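Quick review question:
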């Protein structure tokens, strides 16, 4: 179950163009000062989620997603909210899903909340001292 959080430390709209993953990495790296390992994992996973959304919208015109990040003392949470067709996996995946494999290995928890008007993917990584 996702943690209950207040206002995010970062909330931005990201236009899904070829530069979107780099923009997401730039903004994520500027939130808080987690340990280098945690910062690298959060940046990588965020970049993968945004890259996947960019790839899904290549032939659908210009679209955007909202990136939200929380970094309290005990957990890092990242959410990517956008149109259903950009976030949910296709019914027939075309090969390995590297974004899902990375989420399974690096995140402590992750999921997709598809019941909302705008679905969102999220992941959490516990912070350790």
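Suggested answer, residue by residue:
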């Amino acid at each position: 179950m996702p943690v209950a959080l207040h206002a995010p430390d970062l909330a931005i709209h990201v236009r899904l163009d070829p530069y979107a993953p780099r923009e997401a990495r730039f903004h994520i790296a500027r939130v808080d000062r987690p340990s280098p390992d945690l910062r690298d994992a959060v940046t990588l996973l965020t970049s993968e989620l945004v890259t996947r959304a960019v790839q899904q919208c290549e032939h659908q015109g210009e679209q955007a997603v909202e990136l939200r990040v929380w970094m309290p003392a005990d957990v890092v949470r990242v959410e990517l909210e956008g149109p259903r067709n950009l976030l949910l996996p296709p019914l027939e995946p075309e090969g390995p899903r590297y974004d899902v494999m990375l989420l399974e290995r690096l995140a402590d928890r992750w999921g997709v909340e598809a019941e909302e008007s705008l679905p969102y993917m999220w992941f959490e990584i516990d912070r350790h001292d």
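Why it works: Residues 77 and 124 are 4 Å apart (CA to CA). The chain has a mean pLDDT of 85.
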